[in-house]
Amino acid sequence: MMATGGNMVVMRFPSKAANIGFARTAAALFASQLEFTLDELDEIKIAVSEAVSNAVIHGYKGREGEISLTCRLTDERLEITVTDEGCGIADVDQALEPAFTTEPEERMGLGLVFVREYMDELVIDSKPGKGTTLFMSKSPIQARVRS
Ligand SMILES: Nc1ncnc2c1ncn2[C@@H]1O[C@H](COP(=O)(O)OP(=O)(O)O)[C@@H](O)[C@H]1O
Ligand SMILES: [Mg+2]
Predict the structure, then answer these.
(1) Which of these, 81, 84, 85, 83, lies nearest to 30 by C-alpha position?
(2) Ligand nearest to the CA of 99
(3) How many domains is the chain partitioned into structurally?
(4) Could you tell me the pTM of the whole model?
């Protein structure tokens, strides 16, 4: 059940690079219903663009597939889910290690490190051949001070 004052949007879009920017801005606009600071909104933008770009680049490897982005909020907490039905992650613990990447020529292996750093919570559910879901949540720092 959603708490009083809760809200939710569900978006589904093809895994085109152009949609990475759409997703990060849409998530930040949704998040701005809570009292996040500008720095926190920037952190949310980075986390969402890393998650969605991973779906585009790694999940679908440039093939076209569908990505779902769900943004939900309760009174004091933002929850974001990014799902792809791409190749999945063979070893999630390894994927979370700083500088681990399966594309060492092209990439730095820091995307998931940023997601974990910038969000309060990150849960990755992934099955090889089936796809990947990232669940992340974050509360505004002021909400944490108040409570
Ligand atoms: N949605 C995804 N689908 C498949 N593999 C993924 C996905 N997200 C991350 N990975 C794997 O985890 C690794 C680490 O991701 P990340 O920290 O973002 O680094 P980078 O994108 O620079 O490689 C990727 O190289 C890739 O192997
Ligand atoms: Mg990445």
Answers:
(1) 81
(2) 1
(3) 1
(4) 0.94
Query: CA 73 to CA 36: how far, in whole Å?
Result: 12
CATH number for the domain that contains residue 50: 3.30.565.10
Q: Examine the residue annotation and report whether 107 is marked as an active-site residue of this protein.
A: yes
Which residue out of 24, 40, 43, 50 is catalytically annotated? 50
Ligand with the closest atom to the CA of 115: 1
Using one digit for the tens of pLDDT, what is the confidence trace for 10-62? Answer: 999 999 999 999 999 999 999 999 999 999 999 999 999 999 999 999 999 98
Would you put residue 61 in left (φ > 0), alpha (ψ -120 to 50) or beta?
Answer: left
In the block, tokens 């108040």 appear at 146
**Span 7-21, pLDDT tens digits:** 999 999 999 999 999
Give the residue numbers spanning the domain of 33: 11-146
20 within domain boundaries: yes
